[in-house]
């Protein structure tokens, strides 16, 4: 088992991060209401690009969390990788540090702008390029999912505890797949239709999707990046992986190899599968590979 640095008390660390997360929730909920007003929306949305918007909510949460981490935890060596600061911070990451905070202040920005409620805040503490602690905050559902490296649980803002409940479905055709609302492609749609899952749920935010698997509402999620197209990044998967692994599920590449973080450009290309049972996960990946090959859907 990984242990946080000797100068850090794990229980206090988690307690501090819970407080910070709920402060972030207040910011996100405030802007989620303000953005419904078209006049305010034009002030809140800051476009980095047509397919990559950023909002004041992203920036405010980013500022809050980085500030709090630096104030509270200056006694051990770490770096902070954030989606909003990646161009500034990536060149200054501590190459000798075992510990790396990985932050996505607002995962599912398009859903946030659209008002669906399917957005989340991701915060992970990685040890040697693997997620150790993970926090996935879903403000619209009043849920904060926490992984401490051993177990996972959810909490509401008033402290009510939520338990993980992975479903027991083991066969692909009996599974409910959860798929993206704003990041869909024909290849993935063809794969999903070919497998003929029992049910398909469409939802934004990887954090929301993985939390749905942790709660037992869905069984599997597939991320498929087309060659030459954009790919998910470290901050999309680190915290969600932490909570799903602690719950007993798994997230790997399609060949069942673990995700390794802090690689070139922080990208996670190709096909990534998240499922509800780590013991069954390898077989599920193998079955998907066979379907892809038999139908010539993707270069493997």
Question: Can you offer a commentary on this structure?
Answer:
The protein is α+β, with helices and mostly antiparallel strands and 300 residues long. It folds into two domains: 153 residues, Fructose-1,6-Bisphosphatase, subunit A, domain 1 (Fructose-1,6-Bisphosphatase, Chain A, domain 1, 2-Layer Sandwich); 123 residues, D-Maltodextrin-Binding Protein, domain 2, CATH 3.40.190.80. The protein is 37% helix and 23% strand. The chain contains nine helices and 14 strands. The strands form four sheets. Strands 3-4-5-6-7-8-9 form a seven-stranded mixed β-sheet, sandwiched between helices. A three-stranded antiparallel β-sheet has the order 12-14-13, with helices on both faces. The protein has a two-stranded antiparallel ribbon with strand order 1-2. α7 runs parallel beside α8. The protein starts with 9 loop residues before the first helix and ends in a 6-residue tail after the last helix. The mean pLDDT is 92.
CATH architecture of the largest domain: 2-Layer Sandwich
Examine the coordinates and then state which fold CATH places here, giving the name of the CATH topology of the largest domain.
Answer: Fructose-1,6-Bisphosphatase, Chain A, domain 1
Helix content: 25-40%
Distance between the termini: 34 Å
Report the average pLDDT across residues: 92
- What is the topology, as strand order, of the major beta sheet? 3-4-5-6-7-8-9
What is the subunit organization of this protein?
A: single chain
Sequence stretches where pLDDT stays below 50 over 5 or more residues: none
CATH class of the largest domain equals Alpha Beta
The figure for the number of domains is: 2
GO molecular function: 3'(2'),5'-bisphosphate nucleotidase activity; inositol monophosphate phosphatase activity; metal ion binding
Pfam family, one: Inositol_P
GO biological process, one term: phosphatidylinositol phosphate biosynthetic process
Protein name: inositol-phosphate phosphatase
């Amino acid at each position: 088992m990984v242990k946080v640095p000797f100068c850090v008390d794990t229980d206090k660390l988690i307690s501090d991060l819970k407080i910070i997360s709920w402060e972030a929730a207040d910011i996100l909920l405030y802007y989620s209401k303000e953005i419904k007003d078209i006049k305010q929306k034009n002030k809140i949305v800051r476009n980095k690009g047509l397919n990559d918007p950023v909002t004041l909510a992203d920036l405010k949460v980013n500022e809050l969390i980085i500030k709090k981490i630096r104030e509270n935890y200056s006694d051990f060596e770490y770096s902070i990788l954030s989606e909003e600061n990646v161009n500034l911070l990536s060149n200054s990451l501590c190459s000798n540090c075992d510990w790396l905070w990985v932050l996505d202040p607002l995962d599912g920005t398009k859903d946030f702008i659209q008002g669906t409620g399917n957005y989340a805040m991701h915060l992970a503490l990685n040890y040697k390029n693997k997620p150790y602690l993970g926090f996935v905050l879903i403000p619209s559902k009043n849920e904060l999912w926490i992984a401490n490296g051993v177990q996972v649980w959810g909490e509401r803002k008033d402290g009510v505890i939520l338990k993980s409940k992975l479903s027991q479905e083991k066969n692909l055709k009996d599974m409910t797949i959860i798929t993206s609302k704003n990041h869909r492609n024909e290849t993935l749609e063809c794969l999903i239709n070919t497998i003929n899952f029992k049910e398909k749920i469409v939802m934004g935010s990887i954090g929301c999707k993985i939390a749905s698997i942790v709660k037992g509402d869905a069984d599997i999620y597939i991320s498929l990046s087309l060659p030459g197209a954009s790919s998910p990044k470290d901050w999309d998967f680190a915290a969600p992986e932490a909570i799903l692994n602690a719950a007993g599920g798994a997230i790997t590449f399609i060949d069942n190899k673990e995700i390794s973080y802090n690689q070139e450009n922080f990208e996670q290309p190709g096909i990534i599968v998240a499922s509800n049972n780590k013991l069954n996960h390898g077989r599920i990946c193998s079955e998907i590979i066979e379907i892809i090959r038999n139908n010539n859907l993707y270069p493997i």
